[in-house]
Amino acid sequence: MRRRAPYDAALMTTDHIDTADFPHRHLLGIEGLFPNEITYLLDRSEAYVEQNRQADKKKSTLRGRTIINLFFENSTRTRTSFELAGKRLGADVINMSVADSAIKKGETLIDTAMTLNAMHPDVLVVRHPDSGATKLLSEKVNCAVISGGDGSHEHPTQALLDALTIRRRLGDLAGLTVAICGDVMHSRVARSNIHLLNAMGARVRLIAPRTLIPTGIEHLGVEVFYDMAEGLKDCDIVMMLRLQKERMQGNFFPSIREYFHFFGLDYEKLANTKPDALIMHPGPMNRGVEIDSEVADDFGRSVIREQVEMGVAVRMACLEILGLETGDGDMRNL
Ligand code: NCD
């Protein structure tokens, strides 16, 4: 197994934060971030991995700050880890889901944003089923907005936690070959990972049935395969994606059985990768659909649980960097 690259040791303590290293008010996507900014976020996250393994996990970095988790879509991992991350940094964290909000009574996204904005939050973490909704919201509020996923557009913190997981296992991302397999069409995880991996010098392959590959995606600098054996050949990482049925209109494949036969990750298909290739999945997993249960639980190669652990550290780094930046000026004219 390769060794990980040395990091900037100064960044790996949780004590010194220089927000000039990440000169952005919001984190809405990975597209457009520079490699040094991504590295900065990952280095900051690294410090929190160690802290999260201690008995005392709490810091007071964001004491007095308010974080609102505003989720218009279901979530287990992302919402819980943002909540934990905020609490471990000493912030007050409020969770709002659509089921409990006035959205159900017909309030628009902008009206909801305006209402929350009036309560002076410092960070809004937003997940929304429409691509671009987080950007729209960020233009209407005074606080920092972090995307927890917008439609099939981007899911920046997922790509960051994936990168942290890979980096801790294999070192530098540059030069690695990563295969992203499955429902690329509807996946914000795939899009954010494509941007991040390309920025960091990794090679990205997409493997899926033709119906689940968006036309023109090659322009993002990826290689497209329609056959698992071919696409997985000599890969360092295999990233599996869930079939996002909730975003599908119509039939994209004949049956689950056939899908698993051709595109489900099992040991036979995995035999095409490098011998120590890592298996990843953002969750939630559908065992027996995109991934065989034994492969998912393969102790030596599956890093799926590690991804969840890294999620808390990455979200702490993002909240800390953006949460410290906010100064509450005049409220915008909404
Ligand atoms: C992903 C998402 O919501 O985009 N899940 C996650 O955040 N871990 C992937 C998915 O829902 O399949």
Describe the structure.
The protein is α/β, with parallel strands linked by helices and 334 residues long. Helix content is 34%, strand content 13%. Helix 2 links the parallel strand 1 and strand 2. It is globular, with a radius of gyration of 20 Å. The protein starts with 34 loop residues before the first helix and ends in an 11-residue tail after the last helix. The structure holds N-carbamoyl-L-aspartate. N-carbamoyl-L-aspartate (NCD) binds next to helix 2 and helix 6.
SSE topology:
Elements: H1 35-52, E1 66-71, H2 77-88, E2 92-97, H3 109-117, E3 123-128, H4 133-138, E4 144-150, H5 156-170, E5 177-181, H6 188-199, E6 203-207, E7 223-225, H7 228-232, E8 237-240, H8 256-263, H9 267-270, E9 278-280, H10 293-296, H11 304-323
Parallel strand pairs: 1-2, 1-3, 3-4, 5-6, 5-8, 6-7, 8-9
Q: Termini separation (Å)?
A: 54 Å
Number of helices: 11
Radius of gyration: 20 Å
Average the pLDDT over all residues and give the rounded result: 91
Instruction: Tell the overall outline.
Output: globular
Outline the low-pLDDT stretches.
Answer: 327-334
Largest sheet: 5 strands, parallel
Q: Note the beta-strand portion.
A: 5-15%
**What's the helix-strand series?**
HEHEHEHEHEHEEHEHHEHH
Number of strands: 9
Helix residue percentage? 25-40%
